[in-house]
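Design request, C-alpha cells follow.
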C-alpha cells in the first residue's frame, strides 16, 4: 500500500474535546459482528499502545480506546460513538478536519498541532490518519500521540545548539543562520548590511595569568556590554575571544561611528575579584554585497580586515579594501616560501662585522637572517617578512639560526680565530617560550662557548608582544650568566628610556634611519649625539648601524660612538668568508673589501 504523507503544524485555541458533537446512532456490535474486517480493525484500535479511534466511510466515529480520554476529555469521549467528523466545519480545528478528510484522495496524512488543556497549558499533539480499504467499503484509522515532551526537548536542544553557553549570546551556528537570512533578503531587495569581527587583543594573557574563570568572566562582561552598546544590531560570540556583529550600517562613516561606540564600552577596565582587567578589541569590517556576495565571502573579507587591524595597530578598526586581499595573498606566499626554505635547509646566518672605533679592529659580528632560493640566490629577511610575524614559524626560523650560529662559533673556536663576539637577534616569538634563556645557555655550555661571547639583540617590540611576561626573567638570567644585552633600533620605539631603567641593557644600537642623514639633518645629528651621550652617562656602549660613507663614519666617531657596522666596512658574509676575513685581518686596517 502506498502511503502519501502530508505534515501540517498549527496551533489550536481549543482542545479536541471542544468539537460540537452530533448525536447520531452508534454502530453496535451486533451490526458489525458478522463483518470480520471491522472486527479486526476494532481489535486493532482496542490493543493500540496509542490513543486510537476508527471512522467509517461516512466519517462517523465507530469505536475508540480508553487512551483517547486524555486527548478528548471524559465527557466528550462518552458522546463520541456515532459522531460525524466530516460535518464538523467550525472552530480552529478545521485544519485537522480538512487534513483527515483529505484521505479521500491519499492513503495517509499526518498533522502536528497544539491544543490548550483545561488549565491553559500548551500540549503538542500528533495525529495520524490512515485510510484502510475493506472490500467495497473503507475506514479511517486515527492515531493520537502526545508529543509535548519531544517538542520541549527539541526546543531546548535548538536553544542549546544556537546559544553560546558562556555568554548567552547567539553562537556561530545562529550567526551563520542570521547572515544567510540577510544575504538572501539582500539579494531580493538589493539592500546592504555589514559584518564586524571583533577580537579581544589580550585574552590569552588574561587566561594564562588569572585563570580561565577570569577569562570566562571577561567574556560575559564583553557580551553584556556589546549587546547593550550595539542594540538593535545582531551580536554573537563565534568562539574563543572572537565576537561578531551584523548591522544595517554600510557606509564608512556609519561603521566608524558604530566602532567608536564598541571601543568606548569595551576599552573600559573590567573588575574581577578586586582586580582591574584591561581589555582592548580590534575590529575588521566588510559590507554586503560589495565586499562579498555570499556569507562565506563576507566572512573572508571581514577576517582579512581584522588581520590588517591587528597587524598595523591593535585596538583599531580596519574596513576591508581590495588591496588587503592582495596583501594577504602576498603574505601567504611569503609564508609558503619560508616553510619550504626551512624544511629544505635553505635558512642560514650571514655575519656582518662590527668595528671598534678605539682599536680599528673587528670587535665581533652580528648574525643576520638570509635564505637561499632554489636557484641559489641569497635573499634578505624582508622578502619573507610575513613569516617572521607568524609566531610558530618565526620561532622555528629563529631556532634554526641560533643552532647554525652556535655550530659556526664552535668551528671558529676550534681554529683559534679571534671572532670577538656574535650578536643574535631575538624576537618576541622566542620569548613566548618561558624556557628560552635556559635552553640557549644549555646549548652554549654543550658546545663549550663562553656566555660572554654572545650578545642578544632585542627590539622594543619584544616588551609589548607575545611572551612579554617572560622577557624580564629571561634577560636577567642571560645577563647574570655573562650574555650582553643590546637594545636594537634605539630611538624608534615609544618607551626606550623606561626600558633602559627596567631591563639589564649593556649596548644601545642607533638605528640606521638616524645615521643615514647625520651629515645633512640637524635633527638626526642631534638625536645620534644624544643617544651616544646617554649611553656614556649610563655606562652603556653605543653602536651606529648602517654606516655607508666615510663622512658618516667620521661623524659618529667624533661624537664618541664606540662601535659601527655597515657596508662601508663589509656587508654580511657567510661563515667561510668570516674565516677568510679573520685570517687576513691586520690591526689598523679599517675598511674591508666587499
Amino acid at each position: 500500500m502506498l502511503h502519501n504523507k502530508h505534515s501540517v503544524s498549527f496551533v489550536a485555541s481549543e482542545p479536541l474535546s471542544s468539537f460540537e458533537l452530533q448525536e447520531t446512532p452508534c454502530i453496535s456490535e451486533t451490526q458489525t459482528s458478522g463483518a470480520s474486517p471491522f472486527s479486526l480493525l476494532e481489535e486493532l484500535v482496542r490493543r493500540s499502545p496509542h490513543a486510537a479511534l476508527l471512522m467509517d466511510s461516512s466519517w462517523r466515529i465507530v469505536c475508540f480506546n480508553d487512551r483517547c480520554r486524555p486527548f478528548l476529555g471524559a465527557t466528550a469521549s462518552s458522546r463520541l460513538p456515532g459522531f460525524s467528523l466530516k460535518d464538523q466545519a467550525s472552530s480552529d480545528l478545521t485544519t485537522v478536519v480538512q487534513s483527515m478528510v483529505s484521505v479521500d484522495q491519499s492513503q495517509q496524512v499526518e498533522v502536528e498541532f497544539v491544543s490548550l488543556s483545561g488549565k491553559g497549558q500548551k500540549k503538542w499533539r500528533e495525529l495520524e490518519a490512515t485510510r484502510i480499504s475493506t472490500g467495497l467499503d473503507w475506514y479511517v484509522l486515527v492515531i493520537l500521540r502526545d508529543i509535548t515532551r519531544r517538542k520541549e526537548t527539541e526546543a531546548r536542544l535548538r536553544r542549546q545548539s544556537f546559544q553560546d553557553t558562556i555568554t548567552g549570546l547567539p553562537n556561530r551556528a545562529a550567526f551563520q543562520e542570521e547572515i544567510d537570512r540577510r544575504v538572501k533578503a539582500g539579494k531580493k531587495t538589493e539592500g546592504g548590511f555589514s559584518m564586524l569581527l571583533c577580537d579581544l587583543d589580550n585574552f590569552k594573557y588574561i587566561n594564562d595569568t588569572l585563570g580561565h574563570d577570569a577569562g570566562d568572566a571577561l567574556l560575559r562582561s564583553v557580551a553584556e556590554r556589546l549587546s547593550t552598546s550595539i542594540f538593535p544590531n545582531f551580536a554573537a560570540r563565534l568562539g574563543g575571544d572572537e565576537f561578531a556583529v551584523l548591522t544595517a550600517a554600510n557606509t564608512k562613516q556609519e561603521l566608524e561611528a558604530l566602532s567608536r561606540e564598541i571601543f568606548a564600552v569595551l576599552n573600559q577596565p573590567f573588575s574581577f575579584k578586586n582586580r582591574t582587567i584591561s581589555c582592548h578589541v580590534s575590529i575588521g569590517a566588510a559590507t554586503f554585497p560589495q565586499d562579498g556576495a555570499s556569507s562565506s565571502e563576507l566572512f573572508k573579507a571581514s577576517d582579512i580586515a581584522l588581520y590588517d587591524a591587528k597587524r598595523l595597530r591593535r585596538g583599531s578598526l580596519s574596513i576591508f579594501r581590495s588591496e588587503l586581499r592582495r596583501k594577504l595573498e602576498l603574505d601567504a606566499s611569503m609564508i609558503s616560501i619560508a616553510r619550504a626554505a626551512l624544511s629544505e635547509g635553505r635558512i642560514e646566518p650571514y655575519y656582518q662585522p662590527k668595528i671598534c672605533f678605539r682599536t680599528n679592529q673587528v670587535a665581533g659580528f652580528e648574525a643576520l637572517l638570509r635564505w637561499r632560493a632554489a636557484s641559489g640566490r641569497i635573499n634578505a629577511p624582508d622578502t619573507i617578512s610575513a613569516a617572521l610575524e607568524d609566531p610558530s614559524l618565526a620561532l622555528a626560523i629563529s631556532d634554526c639560526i641560533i643552532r647554525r650560529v652556535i655550530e659556526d662559533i664552535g668551528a671558529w673556536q676550534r681554529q683559534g680565530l679571534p671572532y670577538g663576539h656574535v650578536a643574535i637577534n631575538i624576537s618576541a616569538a622566542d620569548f613566548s617560550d618561558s624556557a628560552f634563556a635556559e635552553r640557549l645557555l644549555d646549548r652554549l655550555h654543550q658546545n663549550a662557548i663562553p656566555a660572554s661571547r654572545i650578545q642578544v639583540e632585542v627590539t622594543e617590540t619584544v616588551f609589548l608582544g607575545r611572551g612579554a611576561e617572560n622577557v624580564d626573567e629571561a634577560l636577567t638570567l642571560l645577563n647574570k650568566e655573562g650574555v650582553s644585552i643590546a637594545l636594537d633600533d634605539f630611538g624608534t620605539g615609544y618607551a626606550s628610556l623606561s626600558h633602559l631603567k627596567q631591563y639589564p641593557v649593556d649596548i644601545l644600537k642607533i638605528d640606521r634611519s638616524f645615521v643615514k642623514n647625520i651629515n645633512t639633518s640637524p635633527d638626526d645629528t642631534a638625536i645620534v649625539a644624544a643617544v651616544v651621550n646617554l649611553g656614556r652617562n649610563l655606562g652603556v656602549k653605543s653602536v651606529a648601524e648602517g654606516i655607508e660613507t666615510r663622512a658618516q663614519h667620521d661623524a659618529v666617531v667624533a661624537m664618541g660612538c664606540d662601535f659601527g657596522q655597515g657596508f662601508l666596512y663589509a656587508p654580511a658574509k657567510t661563515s667561510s668568508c668570516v674565516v677568510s676575513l679573520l685570517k687576513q685581518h691586520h690591526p689598523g686596517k679599517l675598511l674591508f673589501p666587499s
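Comment from the thread starter after seeing the answer: thanks! Residues 1-33, 88-93, 586-594 have pLDDT under 50 and may be disordered.
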